[in-house]
């Protein structure tokens, strides 16, 4: 009897993607597993056939060979040593090792879990949630209390989270006798897997709640008040224990993690607890010196004295005017960086005065004088 096409075995079209192959295999494995088909004598052979098909199609190299040559790719008739072993060859051990490895990894995902043999979780813990929160630099400086709205799963009010109509108690699963797992003997192996009837909970609900469909939880939007401490930075994570999704059938809730992002400020640049502020000053103020007023993140003002002859890039420190440390320890500093501004849109009189100033400025630009002296020495050396 000729082999069936592997894509047909898994109910797929030729050339299906890796995700489609995985989903098709899971569906077929659940449908054909011998434990769920005790009255079907062909279930075991069909289950092996599905595993054999998946063993080939999940492997990119095997899949490429099969797509090109079909079953002949694995029957040693291609020449050049290219075929490799036929899927399922090597006796029962090779067949079942591959098949049940896939069942472990791809179908049930929680084999041998639940704390060892016979272990189970009657009430599964809810999932953790993530919430991205954007705050301004001023809010990060002062700290704030903020109300956020989080879409999540909450305990069903109609059944008090039990999943049973009227809040009735679940009954022991008859398939696994409350153990949450069943054992199956396949060839040389005895495999323990999650009970397909109760999904490992060890209990079943005879009359599911109409409101939640037996899950014990429903989707809702929940408003939460969150305290954001002063000094938070982008990437700060705040954990709210028990504020995640409700657990299945009365299980403990997960946690809510708030990830903070501090938005960019138009005046201040942040570096840890320190702030940087670039302040433009006029050419005359930089040359003659004087006082300027600069803003602080707290909303106040500070006077800064500019020394005469200041150049662009000169920095001055205002101690304690930076951001607060997140876990105490005072405040950082604020650094003022001067940007000497060249005047534009000059009048005729201003140009005249600047030319006159230039004629009188032979000894007022020491850096330029030193630079061009070095340049002249460089040129002279090149000529020599």
TrEMBL record:
The residues covered by the CR-type domain are: 143-221
InterPro entries linked: DnaJ, DnaJ_C, DnaJ_domain, DnaJ_domain_CS, HSP40/DnaJ_pept-bd, HSP_DnaJ_Cys-rich_dom, HSP_DnaJ_Cys-rich_dom_sf, J_dom_sf
User: GO CC annotation: what is one?
Assistant: cytoplasm
Keyword Cytoplasm among record annotations: yes
Chain positions of CXXCXGXG motif repeats: 156-163, 173-180, 195-202, 209-216
Q: Which cofactor does it need?
A: Zn(2+)
Keyword Zinc (UniProt):
yes
SUPFAM superfamilies found in the cross-reference section: Chaperone J-domain (SSF46565), DnaJ/Hsp40 cysteine-rich domain (SSF57938), HSP40/DnaJ peptide-binding domain (SSF49493)
- Give the location in the cell: Cytoplasm
Where in the numbering of this chain does the J domain appear? 5-70
Biased composition of type Basic and acidic residues is found at 31-46
The Swiss-Prot or TrEMBL note on domains reads:
The J domain is necessary and sufficient to stimulate DnaK ATPase activity. Zinc center 1 plays an important role in the autonomous, DnaK-independent chaperone activity of DnaJ. Zinc center 2 is essential for interaction with DnaK and for DnaJ activity.
Query: What is known about what this protein does?
Result: Participates actively in the response to hyperosmotic and heat shock by preventing the aggregation of stress-denatured proteins and by disaggregating proteins, also in an autonomous, DnaK-independent fashion. Unfolded proteins bind initially to DnaJ; upon interaction with the DnaJ-bound protein, DnaK hydrolyzes its bound ATP, resulting in the formation of a stable complex. GrpE releases ADP from DnaK; ATP binding to DnaK triggers the release of the substrate protein, thus completing the reaction cycle.
Protein name (Swiss-Prot/TrEMBL): Chaperone protein DnaJ
Organismal lineage: Bacteria, Pseudomonadati, Pseudomonadota, Alphaproteobacteria, Rhodobacterales
């Amino acid at each position: 009897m000729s082999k069936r096409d592997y894509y047909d075995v898994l109910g797929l079209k030729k050339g299906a993607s890796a995700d489609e192959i995985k989903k098709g295999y899971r569906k077929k494995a659940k449908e054909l597993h011998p434990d769920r088909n005790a009255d079907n004598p062909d279930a075991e052979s069909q289950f092996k056939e599905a595993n054999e098909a998946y063993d080939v199609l999940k492997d990119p190299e095997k899949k490429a060979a099969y797509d090109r040559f079909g079953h002949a790719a694995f029957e040693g008739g291609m020449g050049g040593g290219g075929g490799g072993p036929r899927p399922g060859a090597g006796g029962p051990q090779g067949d079942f090792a591959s098949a049940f490895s896939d069942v472990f990894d791809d179908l049930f995902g929680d084999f041998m879990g639940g704390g060892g043999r016979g272990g189970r979780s009657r009430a599964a813990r809810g999932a953790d949630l993530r919430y991205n929160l954007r705050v301004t630099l001023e809010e990060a400086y002062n700290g704030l209390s903020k109300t956020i709205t989080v879409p999540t799963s909450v305990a069903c009010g109609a059944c008090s989270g039990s999943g049973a109509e009227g809040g009735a108690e679940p009954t022991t699963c008859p398939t696994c006798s409350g153990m949450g797992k069943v054992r199956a003997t396949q060839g040389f192996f005895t495999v323990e897997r999650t009970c397909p009837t109760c999904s490992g909970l060890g209990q079943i609900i005879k009359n599911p709640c109409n409101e939640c469909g037996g899950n014990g939880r429903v989707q809702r939007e929940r408003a939460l008040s969150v305290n954001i401490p002063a000094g938070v930075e982008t990437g700060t994570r705040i954990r709210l224990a028990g504020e995640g999704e409700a657990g299945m059938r009365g299980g403990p809730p997960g946690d809510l993690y708030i990830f903070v992002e501090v938005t960019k400020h138009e005046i201040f640049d942040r570096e840890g607890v320190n702030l940087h502020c670039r302040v433009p000053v006029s050419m005359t103020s930089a040359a003659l010196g004087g006082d300027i007023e600069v803003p602080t993140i707290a909303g106040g003002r500070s006077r800064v004295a500019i020394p005469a002859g200041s150049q662009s890039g000169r920095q001055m420190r205002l101690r304690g005017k930076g951001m607060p440390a997140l876990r105490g320890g005072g405040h950082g500093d604020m650094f003022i960086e001067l940007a000497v501004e060249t005047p534009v849109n000059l009048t005729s009189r201003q140009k005249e005065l600047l030319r006159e100033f230039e004629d009188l400025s032979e000894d007022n630009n020491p850096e330029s004088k030193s630079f061009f002296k070095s340049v002249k020495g460089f040129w002279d050396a090149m000529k020599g």
